[in-house]
Structure to design on (101 residues):
């Protein structure tokens, strides 16, 4: 996975700009800059989360690993099925999306 994504996630955790969990992401107060969903989500959860987020036109990235790997990438000691990064510059989000295509 991308080094830029890993750095951005660790910075977001440190600065408390990260919302974790599918329900919390769907109900995220304010507009998240980027939503990341792990591959271990079931299809129903992925569809609900993406449908909820697409209404606000927030970019969604599918992380190619499990929720355990996504949690480790964030530097957290628990699994993360979905996360939203708040307050990140649009150019950084586009760089992350382009790097992970």
């Amino acid at each position: 996975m991308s080094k830029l994504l890993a750095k951005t996630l660790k910075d977001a955790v440190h600065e408390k700009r990260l919302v974790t969990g599918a329900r919390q992401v769907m109900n995220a107060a304010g507009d998240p800059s980027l939503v990341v969903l792990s591959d271990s989500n079931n299809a129903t959860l992925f569809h609900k989360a993406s449908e909820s987020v697409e209404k606000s036109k927030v970019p969604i990235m599918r992380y190619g690993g499990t929720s355990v790997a996504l949690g480790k990438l964030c530097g957290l000691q628990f699994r993360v099925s979905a996360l939203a990064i708040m307050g990140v510059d649009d150019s950084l989000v586009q760089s992350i999306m382009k790097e992970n295509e």
Q: What stands out?
A: The first strand starts at residue 18 and ends at 20. The radius of gyration is 12 Å. The domain at 3-99 is CATH 3.30.1330.30 (60s Ribosomal Protein L30; Chain: A;).
